[in-house]
Amino acid sequence: MEHKRRLEAMRQLAQLTDLPLIEADGYEMIEYMRAVVGHEAKRCPICYKMRLEQTARAAKEKGLDAFTTTLLISPYQDHDQIIEIASDIAKDVGIDFYYQDFRSGFREGHRITKDMGLYHQPYCGCIYSEWERYAKFKIGE
Ligand code: SF4
Fold first, then answer.
1. What are phi and psi of 27, to 5 degrees?
2. Which among 5, 28, 95, 114 is least buried, having the fewest CB atoms inside 10 angstroms?
3. What digits encode the pLDDT tens for the residues 46-91?
4. What does the pLDDT average to over 101-114?
């Protein structure tokens, strides 16, 4: 349900900004769970890698110049680790990684998308982060 809500928000944003949107085939729940079970406290780099690889490959297939990620706007993500993982993927896939530190625009981005009436995520994305958000604790602490 959360994935559907976020996808719908992306579609609305694409329409409102007149930008094209390339959608993935779906949310690969089983692959994700298989990759992170047993490493729950260190799941984020695994997750970054899965998402960014898919993004880089889609960008390459479409003949685009580069790929990037909205993760770079979040003050809650491990920014340096994202850069490292994305740079490695860029080399493997053979496409540039566009880097910019978007974090200074985090609050403004929230305000703008709120004014647009777009859905805002209440937690990062996986079932573990949902649990952490509502149980108010951190796995591994
Ligand atoms: S907390 Fe976010 S980045 Fe980390 S594994 Fe979950 S969805 Fe991925």
1. -95, 115
2. 114
3. 999 999 999 999 999 999 999 999 999 999 999 999 999 999 999 9
4. 96
* More confident position, 101 or 26: 101
Please choose from 33, 40, 128 the residue to mutate so as to test ligand 1's pocket, defined by most ligand atoms within 8 A of CB: 128
Q: How far is the CA of 126 from the centre of ligand 1 (A)?
A: 5
Q: Give yes or no for residue 32 CB within 6 A of ligand 1.
A: no
Alpha-carbon dihedral sign for residues 36, 39, 44, 46: negative
Query: How many Cβ atoms are within 10 Å of 24's Cβ, its own excluded?
Result: 12
Ligand 1 geometric centre to CA of 123 (Å): 9
Name the one residue in this structure whose structure tokens are 């602490």.
141
Residue 28: pLDDT band with limits 50, 70, 90: confident
Quick check: helix, strand or coil at residue 97? Answer: strand
Residue type, position 96, single letter: D
Region of residue 94 (phi > 0: left; psi between -120 and 50: alpha; otherwise: beta): left
Dihedral, 116, 121, 122, 125 alpha carbons, nearest 10 = 180
For the CA atoms of 36, 59, 98, 119, what is the dihedral angle to 10 degrees? -60
